[in-house]
Model the fold of this input.
Amino acid sequence: MPKISVIMAAFNEEANIQNAILSIQEQTFKEWELVIVDDGSDDGTLNLINEAVSLDSRITCLSNDKNIGLAMSLNKAISFSNSEYIARMDADDYSLSDRLETQLNFMQGNPDISVLGTGGIYCDQHGTELKKVMFPEHHDEIVKWLNKASPFLHPSVLIRRSFFQKIGGYDDSYYRAQDYDLWHRGKNIARYCNLQIPLIKYTDKEKLSIQSVADSFRIRIKHAGSTIELLMLLFWLLVGVIKRIMRFLN
Done:
């Protein structure tokens, strides 16, 4: 049985998915399985996934007849997977070769940690590196960060299966920001950590998305525990909207 299940959902990613798969195949840690859900792609994505499956028995493809969204697709992959540890990966990102080995070693040495993220190298659509980004390191810092933004680079996380068994999977009522809700739900029953090193290359796809803003706001309202927290999230929502508008205008 593989020690790590890498889960990925892909929708119309024919330009990127071969590179993403290759980054898992080139990991220094070899005891993994890769579960890819093709989420109703209408380009060549499914053919490329099936080609990889035919060449590597560690890769499995689950195909949706229609696009059902990221949350439902990830839950489908989690249900199919077999490992104690579950690693996220996006179809347009690239894991550095020592990513899985580094994260697994840390988790095995720190059994109190349930979710382990890393830093990332943001790249543009052409693969040009733009900047390195780090996230708060320790649990208390991460929980505080939840008041204003998601404290993990989602495709970098390694998660114990027991975490999902305790709180359930992703809430598929959110089309965007499903991971933000997940971290909120787990903050009082699990320990979080972020390694202060970049272990993935992450495609810079920050966009002015009304759906993202709306879902993030719904999640913050849902998890606000007091009037003060509600006022804080309203403040950070305003800041976030202004930043997105400025980015869009530039």
In short: The first strand starts at residue 4 and ends at 10. Residues 120 and 245 are 24 Å apart (CA to CA). The two ends are 49 Å apart (CA to CA).
